[in-house]
Amino acid sequence: MADKVHFELVSPEKLLFSADVEQVVVPGADGDFGVLPDHAPLVALVRTGVVEVYEAGKVSTRLFVRGGFAQVTPDGLTILAEEAIDLATAKKADWQAKLKDAEADIAAAADDTQRLRAETRAQAIREVLDAA
């Protein structure tokens, strides 16, 4: 039995995380699930939430994901996320400023399309702030 599971988190922009770890807890569409070494093969949808990476029996890394899917194979766990952010580098003040800008865009929207885009962006920012 292996003592580590290889985990990679990939977003459209980059490979955000790649390491051998003790455990990963994934926010699955049907509920959170943990992946340990020698986990059975699995493909699952990922919902918006926080991926928790465990080392030395505790959470060592928290990664925000929005959508995507997870695949467990004998080689490890790979999450392909629509969007991913390392919460250790997400500065709350920066995200609060982005939210303020999005809310200003909502108020200044000239039509329903602009308003919907700004509201969608504001909701996405709120999800990051809630996770941080």
TrEMBL record:
- Name a GO molecular-function annotation: ATP binding
Q: Does the keyword Membrane apply?
A: yes
Membrane topology for this entry? Answer: Peripheral membrane protein
Give UniProt keywords alphabetically: ATP synthesis, Cell membrane, CF(1), Coiled coil, Hydrogen ion transport, Ion transport, Membrane, Transport
Q: Which HAMAP family match?
A: ATP_synth_epsil_bac
Q: Which NCBIfam families match?
A: ATP_synt_epsi, PRK00571.2-4, PRK13449.1
The record's note on quaternary structure and interaction partners says:
F-type ATPases have 2 components, CF(1) - the catalytic core - and CF(0) - the membrane proton channel. CF(1) has five subunits: alpha(3), beta(3), gamma(1), delta(1), epsilon(1). CF(0) has three main subunits: a, b and c.
- Can you name this protein? ATP synthase epsilon chain
Q: Which organism is it from?
A: Oleomonas cavernae
